[in-house]
User: What shape does this take?
Amino acid sequence: MNDHIKNLLNEFTECEPTLNAMKEFLLSYLHKLICVENGLFVTGIEGRVKNYDSLEKKLELKGHKYKNIGDITDLVGVRVITFYKDQVDFIASLIEKNFDIDYENSVDKRKIYEVDRFGYMSLHYICRIPKSLYNYAAYPKLNDIRFEIQMRTTLQHVWATIFHDTGYKSDVEVPREYIRRLARLEGMLEIADDEFLNIRNEIDSYRNKIRSLVKNGEFKDISFNIDSYESYLSIKPYMSLIEKIASITSAEVEFVPFIKFYDTFVDLGIQSLSEIEQMRIENSEDAYKLSLIQLGGTDIDIISSTVALRNILIMYILKKGGTREDLKKLFASMFGNSMRMSDASIDRIIEQAKGIIMI
Assistant: This one.
């Protein structure tokens, strides 16, 4: 080991506290920037300070390239791993707005391969932390030291990790046939990355279309599923009935998320949103009359919002010739064990409802 390398290693040892401070700040700040402020879910945000042994090996090979420790751009490395490819570019735009980028030494490995070749895909930026973002007197060199931030998808990360373990960083040369097989797998992962992004975009487009149709009251031909049901609930279809029922005793309403009753509609065999909307239209007035019988003359001051849907479904089932057992199944589906009703109570509801149906 020559004196130049020894001097570089001594410099590294002296600035290790600064490097660790940089790493901790970057991990905290990137989480805040990406996940909190921009609401992006990522697989991981991780970082490391280059260890002494690793740096020593690097300098033994390339020490002549560096005049001082500041010339080494990856002493601190941070990696952001995303779910989708387009998130890499979005995060890159955030990095560009918040850090000083050394574009000359940065590399977009997604663009360096020919169209008929595959390889390690990742976006690498070499950056500095601007003083306006973080300036701590205890670490005066912190804003001068460059760091590397890698941005890639989960599948790109999987590929890089596997290839690093089995391929180009091995001490033993890997036969060409294995490299070729690895390249084929990389191509498959690249296709998978594209497909995950395409599927996500198509699902988002479908959801937006459903929301638009529901908002405009166009329920025809919309299949009943968890997404369409959420869109339906977003227009608060039961609100007017809830308020009308609450006015019977001037009660306060305890609101319960109606999404929890999705399985109830599944159990009833509902296939489309138009069926649910038709059910609401045809049974809301009778559901109110049933509530009037149940609550009239009482001094109940708090009611659950579920009473509206419950009574709509009671009227719907009984009008179709449902029995006590059918209502038991309904209550079990809607409320589980939290609302067990005796046969006598169910029979009383049936009598009340039949009086309304016969009017």
The first strand starts at residue 44 and ends at 49. The mean pLDDT is 87. The beta strands are 44-49, 76-82, 100-101, 107-108, 123-128, 147-153, 252-254, 302-304. The chain is about 55% helix and 10% strand.
